[in-house]
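lol forgot to send this yesterday, sorry. struct tokens for the thing we talked abt
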């Protein structure tokens, strides 16, 4: 299955920009009387909250609306990190976080990439796409970091985080174990809804402005057509739009997806010229007021409905 075919040389306004938010307490980490966890960005913070419950105090390094790849750790955040009991992060996604963690003396360092398998999605990307990856640190070494968008991989990470919490804070191990089991059960149910909901569709191909959905596409037998961001001010060439129209007709594509808080200008330009619709597919790198839901599960349900509509689910 060709999980991620790339459409190069198409301008995308903020195409690969991602948004991040933190649903956690923003108080300083350390000395809170609870198990203090610093999380790198929303998907990690959500796991820490769900598994830790009342026993943990979670601080996210990436704030609402902040692009996670561009995060630069402040002196205050470095101090928070040093005072914490644990850090939960996804290596190679945010270089400044990797550096701060490596230099910290935290005993419990939980790297989500070690808790599941990563794959090389779009490793054939060259030119501008490769430049973007180098600039942002995304897909370092050819590995796609967007593991949380696959409920199965996210559940594997959750199990690893739970085990780490149990070891680091044994007084509350029983609760961590129970919370982890409950979370994994919810993720298993979400996986089933995606699997059943996308099993029978008119098309298996979808176009996105952000190449974040390779794992999700692979899990459910779909193909992601990713538009790579070039100059946000430029417009797609007539030849590129023609290529998109040809592809869309051949594969039964109906929709061009964009992100909640990223400009939809290019997506709408392409969609208009190709006679397609536009809709939102959220990479869930953060939750903001414009997200289609208040947490990971709610936004994933919205993503499922959007895909079902675009792909013509039976």
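and heres what i got for the seq, position by position
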């Amino acid at each position: 299955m060709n999980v991620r075919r790339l459409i190069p040389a198409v301008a995308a306004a903020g195409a690969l920009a991602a948004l991040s938010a933190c649903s956690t307490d923003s108080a300083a980490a350390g000395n809170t009387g609870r198990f203090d966890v610093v999380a790198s960005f929303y998907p990690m913070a959500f796991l820490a909250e769900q598994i830790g419950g009342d026993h943990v105090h979670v601080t996210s390094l990436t704030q609402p609306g902040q692009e996670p790849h561009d995060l630069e750790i402040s002196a205050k955040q470095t101090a928070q990190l040093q005072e914490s009991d644990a850090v939960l992060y996804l290596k190679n996604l945010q270089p400044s976080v990797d550096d701060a963690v490596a230099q910290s003396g935290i005993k419990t360092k939980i790297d989500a990439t070690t808790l599941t398998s990563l794959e090389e999605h779009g490793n054939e990307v060259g030119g501008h796409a490769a430049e973007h990856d180098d600039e942002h640190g995304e897909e370092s070494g050819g590995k796609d970091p967007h593991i949380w968008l696959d409920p199965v991989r996210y559940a594997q990470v959750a199990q690893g985080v739970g085990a780490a919490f149990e070891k680091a804070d044994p007084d509350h191990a029983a609760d961590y174990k129970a919370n982890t089991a409950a979370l994994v059960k919810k993720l298993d149910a979400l996986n089933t809804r995606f699997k059943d909901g996308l099993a029978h569709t008119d098309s298996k191909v979808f176009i996105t402005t952000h190449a974040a959905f390779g794992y999700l596409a692979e899990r459910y037998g779909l193909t992601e057509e990713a538009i790579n961001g070039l100059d946000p001010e430029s417009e797609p060439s007539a030849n590129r739009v023609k290529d998109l129209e040809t592809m869309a007709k051949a594969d039964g594509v109906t929709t061009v997806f964009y992100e909640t808080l990223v400009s939809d200008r290019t997506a709408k330009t392409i969609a208009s010229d190709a006679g397609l619709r536009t809709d939102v597919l959220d990479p869930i790198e953060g939750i903001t007021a414009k997200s289609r839901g208040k947490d990971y599960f709610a936004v994933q349900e919205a993503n499922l409905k959007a895909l079902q509509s675009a792909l013509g689910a039976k």
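The longest strand covers residues 35-39. anyway ping me if u want another try
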